[in-house]
Each structure stands twice: as C-alpha cells, then as structure tokens.
Design a protein that fits this description.
two-stranded antiparallel sheet; disordered N terminus; 7% strand; 502 residues; 67% helix
Length: 502
C-alpha cells in the first residue's frame, strides 16, 4: 500500500474500531430499556415483589451499559471533524441534520427522563415513575432512528442536490431522508436485532443464577421473558433482514454479489454455504452452494438473474470512471455468514429453551413457601430433562449471551465494508473523504490511544457488570414496596438523602 494511503487506512481502522466497540452498547441499551419498562409495568399492574426486584436488577445493568455507551459515542462525532473533515465539509449540510435531531430531541429527551427515573423512586407516584422509564425507552428508539437515517443516506443518498460551485451536497428534502425505504428497513432490522441482544443477555444471566440455584423466582421470570424476546425478535430479525436484502439488491448490487462471492451473473443464482477463491482472478476455486436461493432472497424468484461482481465492477467503471469498485470480498462474504450464523444460533437456542420450559414447573415445597434457595434445579420438569442435560443447557444459555453481540458487530462490518470504496454510495469515495492535513503519525497516535482507552473501559464495564450480576436482585425495603401516591412523597424529609434506584 502506498504511503499516501496510510492516513486513510489508519483513519478507517480507527473509525471501525471505535464504532464496533460503541455498537456493543447500543443494542443492549435499546432492548434493556424496553424490557426494564415491561417488568416495571408488570409490577405496577400486579404488585408482585418479583417484578420489582427484577426491575431494579435489570435497570441497574441498563444504567451501567448506557453510561458506557454515552462515553464511547461522543468520540464518534469528533472523528468526523478530526479524521474525516473533507467528508464533513461535503455532506455536513445533510448528515448533520439527523444527528442534530438525535442530540436535541432524542438524547435530551432520554437523559431527562432517565434522571427522573433514577431519582424518582421515592419521589414520584408509581404510574408517573413508570411513565419515565417508558419515555427513556422511546428516547433510545428515536435516537437509533435518527442515526440510522443518517447512515442510510450514506448507503442510498436521496433528497439532496450537488452545489458544484461550493463542491458540496446540499439538503433539499429532509423528510425524504428520514422516510426513504433504506432508512425504514434498516431501522426495523436494527431494532429487532437489538432486542435479540437484550433477550439473550437476559437469558444468559438468568441461566447463570438458576444454575447456582439463586434468586429463582426473579430469574425464572427473567429467563422466560428473555426466551420469548429472543424467539420473537429472532423471527422478526430474519424477516426484516430479508426485506433489507431486497432493498440492498436494488440499491447496492455489488454488496449483494460480494456477500455471496458471486463473480459472474447468472439465473437461479446460488446461496453459497462455503466458498474459497482467487480475488485477483475473479473466480471461486471451491464452492458449496444451494441453487436458486440467492435469486429468491434478492427478488422473490428462484430463477431471476443476479449480476455478479465482475459484471457490476465493469458497469461501475463505465459509469464512474477507471478504478476497482469491489469491496474486500473475503470480509464481505464471511461477515455476512457470521452475522446470519450467530443470529440464527441465538434464535434456535431460544426455541429450545421455550420448549424445555413449556410445561408447568414442578416446584418443591421450599419454593411454595417463598424461600429463594432450593436444593436442586427446578426450572425443568424432572421427567422432561435430566439434571445432566439441564446443566448442559445452562452452559449453552450462558454462551448465548454473546452470540447476538457477535452477529450485530459482523452485521455492521458487512454493512460498511460492503459499501466500499464509497463513503457515500455513488457520490463520494472514501479516499476523498479523509482529512488532508492529518498525518500518518497523528492518526496512528490517536488510534493507539483510543484502543488502549477502550480496553480500560472494557475492563471497567465488565467488572461493574459482573459485580452487580453476581450480587443479584436487591432486597426490598418498605419504601420500595409502598412508593408515594403524590409527587414529592407522603413523608418528605429534607435531611433524608435522596433514594437512588439501587
């Protein structure tokens, strides 16, 4: 690689590293906010202690996660001005609008109500306090929507005009940017995948406690909620992914072809299970595939024509001029499979878990009297599953916690890498978006600093989560069980410290 391209390559590595790291927290934040709100709703409706304990437990993990997400997310916007100033100058009029809405509406909306929820346990009536966490959940979803609308514009630019005198793109239809089919389908897919992450997170942690025979009423409820969430969101993720694939086929055919290592266009195009080839020669040496499936995924027709990498590359050379318009084929191919594989594995384990817990629990007398410790595993009906198989499922369920996170990460790598060499598809190339005045040494230094800093933050995040996961749901006080009926409480005391949610 030429030395002149080194700052671009390093800037891409830095943005990719920080973005993937930040996105570990985003889906968990979105899903845990809604799941926590659902548990608190169950408590308000039934007044059962297990729902309140579950709300406080999962809410604590949610707050740890959202705090880390905010810290790592701030870095993303600074990079636009530092490493990608030509990009910011070129598309700032368009890209900045949804990001401004995200900050001014969604983020402040979210942060205001999260403060009320944290400090309002003994200050607000139950229903008003419950409304606060639902507003937080709505804020996280709105935030995701505006950011995805901005990213979707990079995938499929609409609602703009080129100002040739100023050399930049200018916004002409903000509503079109927000409501184009790319934004809508990508939002649907991302949100459903986020709930897959949250459901698996809940399943893994609940399984860990149940395997240790701890906090069984709370964790049994959490496990079932997590399993239901995994199955529903897994199914919706597959449906939304199919719709997004069809949109991608029409708007970015190169990405679709690269995802399947389809070098030459053909009718009844196959879905590749495994392929190994020579990128320089433009063909596969080894390929295991299922005929017609790719055509169906692209166009709902098992016999339709799907253009190949070589065909599309030649067409784009004629349209945009000489150059190589192929993304990194191995990365696109394998990231697509890892995204699907880990996602479907989570869905399958969710179905297995629901099947294993399908029958009414056979609870020993200790559980019926309300004790939290029992002498044996009680999740599964004894005749349905042996203790050895039960222990195997606990281990598998714990590992399931990681599968959707891996799938989400590879999904975003595929989305962004498959668009290359474009930063804005068909409009601005990545090499033309990097800051011209930033040296190789400066980008390398910031890359190293951020990598080390994020490693430290990862240690902090994991240790905090493990500490509170191990502690389990908190014990309840009288104030927890009897919150105020009016704002400010019925027994205000200026000298009493404000109660935190934990």
């Amino acid at each position: 690689m030429e030395l002149a391209l080194a700052p671009e390559t390093l800037a891409r590595w830095q943005f990719g590293t920080t973005t993937v790291y930040h996105f570990l927290f985003v889906p968990l934040t979105i899903s845990l906010a809604a799941l926590t709100a659902g548990l608190q709703t169950a408590w308000v409706r039934t007044n059962k202690e297990k729902y309140l304990r579950a709300t406080k437990f999962w809410g604590k993990l949610f707050l740890i996660n959202i705090a880390m997400g905010v810290v790592t997310g701030i870095v993303q916007e600074f990079q636009f001005g530092m490493n990608w100033s030509d990009y910011s100058r070129f598309v700032g009029d368009i890209f900045g609008a949804p990001l401004a809405f995200e900050a001014l509406i969604a983020f402040f909306f979210e942060s205001t109500f999260i403060g009320l929820w944290i400090f309002g346990w003994d200050k607000l009536p139950k229903k008003i306090h419950l409304a606060c966490i639902w507003m937080v959940s709505l804020g996280t979803i709105l935030s995701a929507y505006f950011i995805l609308a901005a990213n979707s514009w990079m995938q499929h630019p609409v609602g703009y005009r080129m100002n040739k005198e100023r050399g930049r793109a200018e916004l002409t239809d903000f509503w079109h940017v927000l409501t184009q089919n790319t934004a809508l389908t990508q939002f649907f897919h991302t949100i459903t995948a986020a709930f897959l992450v949250g459901g698996a997170f809940m399943v893994g942690i609940a399984a860990c406690h149940l395997a240790r025979k701890k906090h069984i009423p709370v964790m049994r409820t959490s496990l079932r909620l997590g399993l239901i969430t995994v199955v529903i969101s897994g199914l919706l993720t597959a449906v939304s992914g199919d719709q997004l694939g069809k949109v991608m086929f029409k708007q970015q055919p190169m990405k679709m072809a690269a995802a399947e290592a389809l070098w030459d266009g053909q009718n009844a195009a196959p879905f590749s299970i495994f392929a190994y080839g020579d990128v320089s020669k433009g063909h596969n040496s080894v390929e295991v595939s299922v005929p017609g499936v790719l055509s169906f995924l692209a166009d709902d027709d098992f016999h339709s024509y799907v253009p190949g990498i070589n065909d599309i590359n030649k067409a784009e050379q004629e349209r945009f001029g000489p150059g190589d318009y192929r993304p990194n084929i191995p990365v696109a191919f394998w990231s697509f499979r890892w995204m699907i594989g880990f996602g479907m594995a989570s869905f399958g384990l969710g179905i297995l878990g629901l099947w294993l817990t399908r029958k009414k629990f056979m609870l020993p007398e200790a559980m019926r009297t309300g004790e939290d410790e029992v002498p044996r595993l009680v999740l599964f009906k004894t005749k349905a599953l042996s203790p050895r198989l039960a222990r195997c499922y606990w281990i598998v369920a714990l590992w399931t916690l990681l599968f959707p996170l891996i799938a989400n990460s590879w999904g975003w790598i595929f989305t962004e890498m498959g668009r290359q060499p474009w930063v804005v598809y068909g409009v601005l190339r990545t090499r033309d978006a990097v800051s011209p005045g930033v040296s190789q040494g400066e980008v390398l230094t910031s890359l190293i600093v951020f990598t080390v800093l994020y490693a430290v933050l990862a240690v902090i995040e994991v240790r905090l989560l493990l500490k509170y996961i191990k502690a389990g749901p908190p014990e309840l006080t009288e104030d927890d069980l009897n919150p105020p009926t009016r704002i400010g409480g019925d027994h205000e005391d200026a000298d009493r410290p404000m109660a935190f949610s934990y």
